[in-house]
Design goal:
By secondary structure, the protein is mainly α. The protein has helices spanning 19-35, 43-50, 54-60, 64-80, 90-108, 111-122, 127-136, 138-155, 163-184.
């Protein structure tokens, strides 16, 4: 899924989509999400905060869940992009994983992200929102690391059957204490 809905205009004639408005809407959505909690992210609030009509917002993202997914994916893509290369040897694999973990920790130590995690921990959230955020954020990172491990093993003519478990353990070890610090302030 792209950040903009594919075929949002459906090939109909008219003015092209204004990407500046897209940036305004995504920035407003991010600010609402990080300042409040997932429940604060409503289509009305994003339209109001970005200064666009609800029709413009709905043209890009047909419902709140699509907007939430776009926001989470927008945050995750730069981190996941560090895992695109297929390392040739163990030293290169360690280097790629180290870069990824450094980027991930830099992301989660941002004050806005810390406030977001604290808000999530402190307030009841709709289960569907939390599951969606997990699937598009942490689970996607685990899956990307597992894929990297499998691809690396394949270049060596081997398999890595426990790649998903090992990826989850690696990310969990890197994040564990940092998340505790964030949540307990």
């Amino acid at each position: 899924m792209t950040l903009l809905m594919d075929g949002a205009r459906g090939g109909t004639p008219g003015r092209p989509l204004d990407v500046r408005k897209d940036e305004l809407m995504l920035a407003a959505g991010r600010a609402l999400l990080l300042a409040g909690r997932p429940a604060a992210l409503t289509m009305e609030a994003v339209a109001r905060a970005s200064g666009v009509s609800k029709a413009t917002l709905y043209r890009r993202w047909p419902h709140r869940e699509a907007l939430l997914e776009a926001l989470v994916l927008r945050e995750a893509q730069p981190l996941l992009g560090t895992l695109d290369a297929v390392p040739a040897d163990a030293a290169a694999l360690a280097e790629v994983l180290e870069r990824f973990l450094d980027s991930m920790l830099a992301f989660v130590t941002q004050p806005a992200y810390q406030a977001y995690l604290q808000a999530i921990a402190a307030l009841p959230q709709p289960q569907a929102d939390l599951q969606r955020i997990w699937r598009l954020g942490p689970q996607q990172a685990i899956d990307a690391v597992a894929t990297l491990l499998r691809r690396h093993a394949a270049t060596q003519g081997r398999r890595w059957p426990g790649a998903a478990r090992d990826a989850e353990i690696l990310i969990g070890m890197a994040m564990g204490l940092e998340l505790a610090r964030i949540l307990y302030r």
